[in-house]
UniProtKB/TrEMBL annotation:
<keyword id="KW-1133">Transmembrane helix</keyword>
<dbReference type="InterPro" id="IPR053025">
    <property type="entry name" value="Mito_ATP_Synthase-Asso"/>
</dbReference>
<dbReference type="InterPro" id="IPR018253">
    <property type="entry name" value="DnaJ_domain_CS"/>
</dbReference>
<keyword id="KW-0472">Membrane</keyword>
<protein>
    <recommendedName>
        <fullName>J domain-containing protein</fullName>
    </recommendedName>
</protein>
<keyword id="KW-0812">Transmembrane</keyword>
<dbReference type="InterPro" id="IPR001623">
    <property type="entry name" value="DnaJ_domain"/>
</dbReference>
<feature type="transmembrane region" description="Helical">
    <location>
        <begin position="170"/>
        <end position="187"/>
    </location>
</feature>
<feature type="domain" description="J">
    <location>
        <begin position="55"/>
        <end position="120"/>
    </location>
</feature>
<dbReference type="InterPro" id="IPR036869">
    <property type="entry name" value="J_dom_sf"/>
</dbReference>
<dbReference type="Pfam" id="PF00226">
    <property type="entry name" value="DnaJ"/>
</dbReference>
Length: 208
């Protein structure tokens, strides 16, 4: 089956918009599609340079000096313009939409963009190392998840510790209240007993 048929585009689009749970596997498949496309186009001499190097900045309509904010803005605007929902049945729009997403996958990632620009500056076709791509692409994601998990665990521990402290403070307050009540009761009874003794002694003296 030709990689340029509508069936290929349909499968590629479905892979691109799959569920979050299968994101990593989907992007791995997407990379393989890109590699197949690059190999096929090179074999028929469509271009003397890599498809990846030829189109990424051009696909987003930006310069090589664009900031990450400009890259995101260009991707956002173009993805809305060429989104399949707005261009149903248009093969050209679907092709452009995929090219935009592929370009943003690389240029929107700091490490991948450095590798891409480095290969371009040396005037050679970049060799896409899948392991290196995966580490660069998902490294930050894994780091964020790790940081989020550590933060969650820390917050959970602090919440439990705070709850335990509150319970201890409440228990201490109860003990202090009962202690004060006991002391007050003892002091009150003592004050009642003293006048009674003095009264008895006074009566005995008067009787004598």
């Amino acid at each position: 089956m030709s990689i340029c048929t509508p069936t290929f585009y349909k499968d590629f689009y479905n892979d691109l918009w799959c569920s979050q749970r299968d994101m990593i596997n989907t992007r791995s498949r997407m990379l393989r599609h890109v590699l197949v496309l690059n190999t096929a186009q090179t074999s028929v001499n469509f271009s003397s340079t890599s498809v990846l190097h030829q189109n990424y900045y051009e696909d987003l309509g930006i310069s090589k000096n664009s900031t990450i904010g400009e890259i995101k803005a260009a991707y956002y605007n173009l993805s809305k313009l060429y989104h399949p929902d707005k261009n149903q049945g248009s093969e050209e729009a679907a092709k452009k939409f995929r090219a935009i997403n592929q370009a943003y996958e690389v240029l929107g990632n700091y490490k991948l963009r450095r590798l891409y620009d480095k290969a371009d500056n040396k005037g050679r076709t970049p060799i896409y190392n899948f392991d290196e791509w995966s580490r660069a692409h998902y490294g930050q994601s894994f780091e964020r998840r790790k940081t989020a998990k550590e933060k969650h665990d820390r917050q959970t521990y602090e919440a439990k510790d705070q709850k335990l402290m509150s319970q201890n403070e409440y228990l201490l307050l109860v003990i202090m209240i009962f202690t004060c009540l006991g002391y007050y009761k003892f002091a009150t009874e003592s004050s009642y007993d003293t006048p009674k003794d003095q009264t008895k002694r006074t009566r005995k003296t008067n009787d004598e």
